[in-house]
Amino acid sequence: MDSDDFYRLIRTWLTIHLPRARRLSPHTIRSYKAALNALLDYLRQTRGLQLDEVSFAALDHATASGFSIWLLETRNLAPSSVNQRLAAIKSFLAYCAGEDPALVAVWLDVKRIRPVRAPARAPDALEVAAVEALIRAPGQDTLRGLRDTMIILLLFDTAARIQELLDLTPADIDTTAGRGRVTLIGKGRKTRTVPIMDTTGGHLDQYLAAFHPGTPDPATPFFFTTRAGQRHWMSQDNISYLLRKHAVTARQHCPDIPERIHAHQLRHARAMQMLRADVPLPHIKEFLGHANLATTSIYATADNQMVRDAIQHAASSTPDPAALWKGDDDLLLQLAGLK
Q: How far apart are the C-alpha atoms of 299 and 279, rounded to whole Å?
């Protein structure tokens, strides 16, 4: 089967099968789309395959295995994120096998790839000084600086997952002083409303005045990029890029900022801040949108570990831290439903 068949099946999977047959949420479908885009990026960077050269012939056990390693070591994704992308690729190939028996062998070959094992470790939360330096780094002298400041501040104050932030619309924001809050749509389309600081509300009002003047469309993207005069939803790669960019500036004032920065470190930092302020774990669980308390309890374990690390450090000091497709590739991705 050639590349035409490959992209035809991608399009029907994304636009018909997932939303209509499986009735998956737009959030989940975007996640699956991101996995396919990552696979195409991997094939281009490691195999030299351009979009119109990709077909099912490029997909096998070796490709899927190399893809998972590439996500871990080059994209610096967490094992859980790698497993999510692998699961999306397997789901796509299972659909293709059902559409064409000739593709069953491809699906079974890739299906043999085992999930990446995640090592047990404490959340890599940023310290408060690092968070403050990161928030200050973009500055607010330009519209882009204002936007980036708002993104970093909101990621921290709401402890939102990166996709939860990207899914925000103006209708999800309430900046009323003393009652400010943000409504987030989390995993499984579960909605939760989290309070925000009054200072964050003030920054939100400033952002709304600059980017959503007047009475904004309540369904428009709260954070967006502009292409050809049209507003588009931001991608996770956009957020990752701006965090890495501003971390370079922030590191000049706070050397503790790690070289490998990601949005979840701000979420972890907020959770640790709440824990140290004696907020009960069940309240933190609801704030973070965790399904069970055991997931939240890791922050209590992490805090004990930090105490031990601090003691060890004190003893040791005693004398004796997105490929943008262009040209025809843009059209090809759009036709396949990937943009």
A: 12
* More confident position, 74 or 302: 74
Where b means 16+ CB within 10 Å and e means fewer, 225-260 reads: eeeeeeeeebbbbbbbebbeebbeebbeebeebeee
3-class SS at 239? helix
3-state secondary structure of 232: strand
In the numeric block, the tokens 């885009």 are attached to: 37
Instruction: For residue range 3-53, list pLDDT tens digits in order.
Output: 899 999 999 999 999 999 999 988 889 999 999 999 999 999 999 999 999
Could you tell me the domains of the chain? 3-119 (1.10.150), 128-263 (1.10.443.10)
**Confidence (pLDDT) at 330:** 59
Residue 106 and residue 56 in contact, taking contact as beta carbons nearer than 8 Å: yes
**DSSP labels, 142-194:** SHHHHHHHHHHHHHHHH---HHHHHT--GGGEE--TTT-EEEEE-GGG-EEEE
Classify 54 in phi/psi space as left (phi over 0), alpha (psi -120 to 50) or beta.
beta
Distance CA 17, CA 231 (A): 27
- pLDDT at residue 266, rounded to an integer: 94
Which regions of 188-280 does DSSP assign to beta strands (E)?
191-195, 224-227, 230-233
Contact 31, 164 (CB under 8 A): no
Burial of 195 (C-beta count, 10 Å sphere; 0-12/13-18/19+) = middle
Bridge partners for 195 per DSSP: 181
Q: What are phi and psi of 192, to 5 degrees?
A: -140, 150
